[in-house]
Write a structure and sequence with these properties.
The complex is a heterodimer of chains A (about 775) and B (about 160). By secondary structure, chain A is α+β, with helices and mostly antiparallel strands. Chain A is built from 19 helices and 30 strands. Classes of the chains: A alpha+beta (about 775), B alpha+beta (about 160).
């Protein structure tokens, strides 16, 4: 450990990111332009499913200012969008072509691309492109009979199976079997900045640049290199400011390929900015699943086995994530409970809708709804309080680390640490639950439809296996931390600067954090799966300690003092016993480490160091959500009166930012629970294509959220004991609110589908199940 | 094609003479013709409020206006909020209360609040909530935005 001051970790210091952002000096992709750039507009399918018989681009080509119009035939050599993790031959037939070939499979699918010298002209020209489509029946329900995808393939891409133990025997022998059918609606991240990309080919250096990247710049560089058959070193991917990510932004989409290929072939920079309607039909959707779940339980409500069959509505193609969400769903469904026997069978099915992939807490939002609805159903069946069922089934702290023979993200699951019931007790105490419960019962007796609900979950974070950074100090003493991480607005720079500054012994404001620039560092795995703080901060910690050791080694020679006697305070090396005595600044040490320096000796030139962190397992933080809702029986609308989230993060680097992540995640979860839904008519036309139809929570709908942030169980898996935070605010929202609405209506098990719109509540109240 | 028109937009007190199509939206003109990219485009149909600017002191959605309609009007954007190096109380409050994450909606919220608070810093909490509910944020869950605007209102009212 560092002997320096513990000044920055754990402090809610002001964000380094904010000053330019509050002054309108940010640099989002739309703010970037290059001389002589062209503007791309994508022509999209208006049909959910059909055969392309002809595409006429003549009129568009004739419009002054139009440089080129491409259809699939013009880029026949460009492969479909590949998987991020590499080749997966069984899934390859289901990849999305960059422009539709032969068939269109969802409304919004790119059919042609127009390039013009003005964005208005490009849009005019796109309107002149006509596609003749011979319509085919649209398949819109994942649990319906699969249809034809192409040739000899149907729309069931694969069937995912995970499990252990003898489920059939347990179901046959159990005194009680509880059975449910539960549906999670189709919604997504919908960042406030729509997507954008600029391709630029620098002939003089033979470098292809992609600007506007996010989330996983290095992975996307490697993926582009593979698809374009170029060496990765010939591609520079640049992240700028990103207006929200949430899992969906920053994946490699057809439009990213188009701007890159066009930049090389048309020899102009090519800029593409998505409009909102496009975003709602073209960027990744997420979440939609139908679960048919059964649990075998004993007379005390102890789970003996879970058997889940689910249908994952993937939309029209398998995108960069391949089978990640559908596979992870099976691995993490059991959550915080002991489940002696388990079987999950997931049907990975295509439909004629926008393709789906990850959205903040992928698989967890869905399975927490399913699992906690199941806990409520068990409680109802036995006439026992839901939290009593949780107590009887939760994994105890004495069982940690808890291994479960299931996989999530390619790793066997091993819960590292935690006390789930301890956290529940703390929450109940804070709530004064006995009193609150009685209050709610009194209000219900007086005619109000008010109720409360809980949802307990285990998160996963810190996907490895490795991350590395480089730390450098220049001759002025300024520190630069170069990472392969990415920032989607979560405060990455501030948090990394805090970790780096503390280990070295400088002010965090002295640290410039570089991220998302593939030409600055060879390796990086970006920001996803709540991994940035866990992985990149751990690597930063190591890198900064290595730099500190190098600085002290040089200072020991210059100050004629033993290394152990030295410390670094505020960027100066001093004697611990004489902090006001002789000192040498880091900048001066950097000068002494110049390649020509006489005292360099055997040392590598420069005051710089690398830091690597490797880990075999993810870390599994955990939490509990609690909701109080009031339902208007007349309108069916739900008002969230109170919301509390208890979460054990291990160690918070910046508590204000952690709480910001949790509260922001909650608001998105609220949208998915009550408002947001990509619905379709029977022809497969999307009905939510504007913000007037796709309803996101505003300040009016979003209640104050109380966050009980605990640091009780630091993980042993990394040097700072940290667990991830980015997804914990969203995970339990659908589950907790559904439970609270059941309670408010006095109708246990009534809510079986998200989002819980006023129409669905009215259906429940009118005696028709949703 | 319709003839381009020459117009002068006055943004933060600075005159920008530009030639635009009559159909060019105000937000595109502010961003691309006048280079003031702090005003953002989030939905292009007036719902999200990321493009909010002040027109003669009133908050408007600049995606719903044509540039030609803003001639001879005073346009104020986020770039004009600070007084030199001194941040506007709203800007400082957003920093102090962690009222932003990705920052994309922030200019719109700042201009929305500035337009109203500069006229009426004593706005009631409920009216303030109604006001802030007219813009969308996808990162913060709004709590810290509300706290920041309230704090700024208190400070502005005390001046």
């Amino acid at each position: 450990m560092t002997s320096g001051n513990n000044k920055w970790i754990g402090q809610s210091v002001a964000r380094l990111e904010d000053p330019p952002l509050v002054q309108g000096r940010g640099r989002y992709v739309g703010d970037i332009s290059f001389p002589h750039q062209l503007h791309m507009r994508v022509v999209r399918s208006n049909h959910a499913h059909g055969t392309i018989t002809a595409i006429d681009t003549t009129a568009a080509r004739g419009l002054p200012g139009v440089i080129a119009v491409w259809t699939a035939a013009d880029i026949a050599d460009v492969p479909p969008i590949d998987f991020r993790e590499g080749r997966i031959p069984t899934l390859e037939p289901y990849r999305q072509p960059v422009l539709a070939r032969d068939k269109v499979r969802y409304v919004g699918e790119p059919v042609a691309a127009v390039f013009a010298d003005d964005p208005y002209i490009a849009e005019d020209a796109a309107d002149l492109v006509t596609a003749e489509i011979s319509e085919l029946p649209a398949l819109l329900v994942a649990d319906a009979e699969p249809g034809e995808f192409a040739d000899d393939r149907n729309t069931e891409v694969s069937v995912i199976r995970q499990g252990y133990g003898n489920v059939d025997a347990a179901l046959a022998a159990a005194p009680i079997v509880v059975e449910l059918e539960l549906a999670i609606g189709r919604h997504s991240g919908v960042p406030l900045e729509a997507r954008g990309a600029i391709g630029r080919y620098d002939f003089s250096r033979d470098i292809l640049e992609l600007h506007g990247a996010a989330k996983v710049p290095h992975r996307n560089r490697d993926l582009l290199a593979r698809m374009l058959n170029l060496p990765p070193s010939a591609i520079h991917v640049h992240e700028s400011h990103v207006g929200g990510g949430f899992g969906i932004r920053g994946e490699l989409y057809p439009e990213d390929m188009l701007v890159c290929v066009a930049a090389m072939r048309l020899r102009h920079p090519v800029k593409w900015l998505e409009d909102r309607r496009e975003h709602l039909v073209a960027a990744n959707h997420s979440r939609q699943q139908l679960h048919r779940i059964r649990a075998a339980i004993d007379d005390e409500g102890r789970i003996l086995a879970i058997d889940d069959r689910y249908f994952h509505d993937q939309g029209a193609y398998v995108r960069t994530h391949a089978a990640r969400v559908v596979h992870m769903t099976a691995g993490i469904l059991p959550g915080p409970y002991r489940v002696p026997a388990y079987r999950a069978v997931g049907h990975f099915r295509l439909t004629n809708k926008t393709p789906a992939a990850t959205y903040r807490a992928p698989g967890r939002y869905e399975t927490t709804f399913v699992r906690e609805r199941l806990i409520d159903a068990i409680a109802t069946r036995l006439g026992v309080d839901g939290n009593e069922i949780r107590r009887r089934n939760a994994i105890g702290p004495e069982e940690m680390p808890y291994h479960r023979p299931l996989e999530a993200l390619g790793e066997e699951i091993e819960y590292d640490s935690g006390d789930y019931i301890g956290l529940l007790d703390r929450l109940l105490t804070t709530l004064e639950w006995t009193k609150l419960k009685a209050d709610l019962a009194r209000r219900r007796a007086a005619g109000e439809a008010v109720g409360a609900g809980f949802a307990m979950f285990v998160e996963k974070s810190g996907l490895g296996p490795a991350d590395g950074v480089r730390v450098e100090v220049d001759t002025t003493g300024a520190v630069e931390l170069v990472t392969g991480g990415a920032s989607l607005g979560q405060g990455f720079e501030t948090v990394m600067a805090q970790v780096c500054a503390e280990a070295i012994g400088v002010d965090y404001r002295q640290v410039r954090v570089t991220h998302g620039q593939t030409d600055r560092i060879a390796f990086g795995i970006g920001a996803h799966a709540s991994r940035a703080t866990v992985m990149t901060a751990s690597a930063t910690h190591h890198g900064a300690l290595n730099l500190r050791a190098k600085a002290i080694d040089v200072a020991a020679e210059l100050l004629q003092a033993p290394r152990e006697a030295l410390d670094i305070i505020d960027g100066k090396v001093v004697r611990k016993d004489q902090p006001a005595g002789a000192s040498i600044s880091l900048g001066a040490i950097a000068e002494h480490l110049a390649p020509t320096s006489k005292i360099l000796g055997d040392r590598e030139p420069g005051l710089s160091a690398e830091g690597w962190f490797r880990v075999a397992h993810q870390v599994y933080p955990y939490g509990i959500h609690f909701a109080v809702v009031k339902v208007d029986r007349e309108t069916g609308s739900t008002h969230v009166e109170r919301y509390v989230i208890a979460y054990d993060i291990g160690r918070a680097i910046n508590p204000a930012l952690v709480k910001g992540q949790i509260v922001g995640g909650f608001a998105q979860g609220l949208g998915g629970a009550l408002l947001e839904e990509f619905s379709y008519n029977e022809r497969g036309d999307p009905l939510a294509t504007t913000f007037a139809d796709y309803l996101m929570p505003t300040a009016r709908e979003t209640p104050d959220v109380a966050v009980i942030l605990r640091e009780d169980h630091q993980t042993p898996l990394n040097p700072l004991g940290i667990k991830g935070a980015g997804e914990s605010g969203i995970t339990g929202v659908g589950a907790a609110i559904a439970s609270a609405i059941d309670d408010a209506l006095g109708m246990p098990g009534a809510i079986t589908q998200l989002p819980i719109t006023p129409q669905r509540v009215k259906e429940v109240l009118n005696g028709r199940r949703t | 094609m319709t003839e381009k028109c020459e117009i002068t937009l006055t943004i933060n007190g600075c005159a920008h003479t530009i030639r635009v199509d009559p159909r060019r939206t105000l937000v595109d003109a502010i961003r691309d013709d006048c280079g003031q990219t702090g005003t953002h485009i989030g939905c292009e149909h007036g719902v999200c409020g990321a493009c909010t600017v002040l027109l003669d002191g009133e908050p408007v959605r600049s995606c719903l206006m044509f540039a030609v309609q803003a001639e001879d009007r005073q346009i104020r954007t986020v770039e004009g909020l600070a007084n030199g190096d001194e941040l506007h109380p709203l800007q400082q409050a957003f920093i102090d209360h962690h009222g932003l994450q990705c920052g994309f909606c922030t200019p719109g919220f700042l201009m929305l609040a500035a337009g109203v608070l500069e006229r009426d810093p004593n706005i009631s909490d409920d009216d303030l909530l109604d006001l802030l509910a007219s813009n969308l944020c996808r990162c913060t869950g709004y709590q810290n935005i509300i706290k920041a605007v309230r704090a700024a209102a208190t400070q502005m009212g005390a001046r």
